[in-house]
Description:
Blueprint: H1 3-6, H2 11-21, E1 23-33, E2 36-47
Antiparallel strand pairs: 1-2
Amino acid sequence: xxxxxxxxxxxxxxxxxxxxxxxxxxxxxxxxxxxxxxxxxxxxxxxxxxxxxxxxxxxxxx
Length: 62
């Protein structure tokens, strides 16, 4: 077993690293009956932390 395999990372540390760089979530869900698409849902989401150096993109919408 190498040092990397024995290394433990807390969930809070992992979440902090992901939010610091940003996370993109994408997905597709299709409800189909008898080869007929009834409902299609597309998901595109960007999750990122916001601070003084990286302002919110929704700040100017008011």
